[in-house]
Amino acid sequence: MGSVEVMTIENKKAGSLELSPGIFEAKVKPDLLHAEVRRQLARRRAGTHSTKNRSTVSGGGAKPWRQKGTGRARQGTTRAPQWAGGGAVFGPVPRSYEHKLPKKVRSAALRSALSLRCGEGAITVVDALPLDEFKTRRVREMLGALALADKSVLIVIDGADEKLERSARNLPGVAVVRVAGLNVYDVLRHESLLLTRGAVAGIEARLQRSTRPGEGENGS
Q: Which of 218, 154, 213 is nearest to 189 (CA)?
């Protein structure tokens, strides 16, 4: 892709910007995308499911009948698993589903996701997204001017912008994320990316790494 045109919110040209090929033209690796999305979704699971085993079900202290002489199988408690109302066997208990991936793998996955959207021509760069009031309609108008009104859009900004973040949250299919919180799952679940010039610089600063001897820019 090399350079990309920088637009204003009125969809007029405001110059061009060179994109880092190591970040926006990296080799797309589906296995890394899958691993990182799986990690993110696993981390979001509450893990609050819980069942009671025979030691936590109330009651059952008395032996149902005497050990011998009844002709029936011996039983020690009515809270054993084979009894109605008894405890569960190997039932789910509260746990964390979170698992870790190496930082280099996560960074490579994010570069892969950005390169995928870049290769699809789904990245729009704007000079800035000025918003002087809390106005959802204003954000809708800006997206309409950039031909993004009918698409799911991930807006990436370089820092906190309360007016923009709060104004866009009521728009279906639109999300605002700061560079520090940019992640693979959000990139993949939105069909278009809207980046500010400052956000591009922030992404490149976050993901920039030295290329080892013998390793190409595409990270292969």
A: 154
Contact 20, 85 (CB under 8 A): no
Q: Cβ(57)–Cβ(99) under 8 Å? A: no
- pLDDT tens-digit readout, 2-56: 688 999 999 899 889 999 999 999 999 999 999 999 999 999 999 999 999 999 9
Phi-psi region at 214: left, alpha or beta (left = phi > 0; alpha = psi -120 to 50): left
- The phi, psi pair for 18, rounded to 5°, reads -80, 125
The token duo for 53 is 């085993």
For the stretch 88-111, pLDDT in tens is 999 999 999 999 999 999 999 999
pLDDT, average across residues 61-86: 95
> Would you list the domain boundaries of the chain?
3-33+101-207, 46-96
Q: What predicted TM-score, i.e. pTM, was given to this entire model? A: 0.83
Q: Which of the four CATH numbers 3.40.50.720, 3.40.50.2300, 3.40.1370.10, 3.30.420.40 does domain 3-33+101-207 have?
A: 3.40.1370.10
124 sits in which H/E element:
strand 123-126
